[in-house]
Amino acid sequence: MIDDIRLREDVLAELLWEPSVACDGITVTARRAVVTLSGHVGSYAQKSAAAAATRRVAGVQAVVERIKVRLPAEMGWSDGMIAATAAARLASNVFVPAGRVLIAVKAARVTLTGQLDWWFQREAVEQDMRALSCIVDLSNRITIQRLCSLAAPPAADRGDEMVEALYRAWFLPTGASSDRPRA
Questions:
Q1: Chain segment 79-107, per-residue pLDDT in tens
Q2: pTM of the complete model
Q3: Where's the BON domain (predicted)?
Q4: Extended beta strands in 18-173, E state
Q5: Contacts of 168 (CB under 8 A, 6+ apart)
Q6: Is 161 inside a domain boundary?
Q7: Are residues 50 and 105 in the same domain?
C-alpha cells in the first residue's frame, strides 16, 4: 500500500499536470488512501476537474471534496439569470429530449431532476451545466428509466449483438481483421 506522503505528492503532481485546474488555491491531505481536497477555485468546472484528477491517481480509494468555489464579485448573477442560462444551454443540447429535465437554482447551486432514457443523456446534461461559469455547486438527481421498445427483440435474442459490441470495443485493434469468435 502506498504511504500517505507519497499519495499526497502524486495527487499534487496530477493536479499540476491537469490543465483545467488552477491548483494554487487547493490544499491536499491524504490519510489511509482517503484524499481530502480543501481550499478554493474560481469555477465549479475547476472543482469538478480537481476531483476527477484526484480519482485518477493510483492508490486513491476515496476523495473528500471541501473545495469552495469563489466566483468573481463582478459576475453578480442572480439565481433567475443562472436558471435562464442553464435552461437555454439545456434547450440547445441535441441529446436531451425537451421537457424531461427540471433545473432548480438556489444561491448559485444548481439541482437537476427528471427522467431520461439513457445514461449518456444524463452525462451530457451534467457536462453542459458543469461548464457554466456562474455556479458554485451541481447536484445531478436525474434518473434513468429506459422504456422497452416493442420493435426491439427481447434481450435474450440480442446476445450475439452484445458480444460483438464488447469485442469491437475491447479486443479489436485498429486495422485488425474482423474474424472473431461468435457467441
A1: 999 999 999 999 999 999 999 999 999 99
A2: 0.75
A3: 3-71
A4: 26-31, 34-41, 62-69, 101-106, 109-116, 137-140, 143-144
A5: none
A6: no
A7: no
